[in-house]
C-alpha cells in the first residue's frame, strides 16, 4: 500500500496512512479558552473528523496517547467525556501523561493510531 499524507503542512501531516494504519498528528480543541471538559469534547470531535477523512472511525482506534496540562486537575473531567465518547467494547490501548503544552491555554492534546476497515 502506498504511503498517503493528508492535510500536509510545512512541519507535519495531520493524517498519514500506511499499510492499513492511520496515524493522526496531535489533535487539539478549537477553543483554547474552554475548560478541560470542553477541550476534550472538541478534540474528540476533531479526531472523529480526521478519522472519517482517512476512511475509518473511532471503533477502529488501536492506540491513543493523551497529553494533559494538569493531570491532577483535569484527569477526571477528561475521563468523563472520554467514557461517553468510546463505544462499549471498543476501548483502545491508551496512555495519559502530564505535559507542558505549546501554549499555556491548551489543556488537552491527543495522538491517535487507528486501523482502516
UniProtKB/TrEMBL annotation:
Coiled-coil regions listed: none
Superkingdom: Bacteria
The protein's name in its UniProt record: Enamine deaminase RidA, house cleaning of reactive enamine intermediates, YjgF/YER057c/UK114 family
UniProt lineage: Bacteria, Pseudomonadati, Pseudomonadota, Gammaproteobacteria, Pseudomonadales
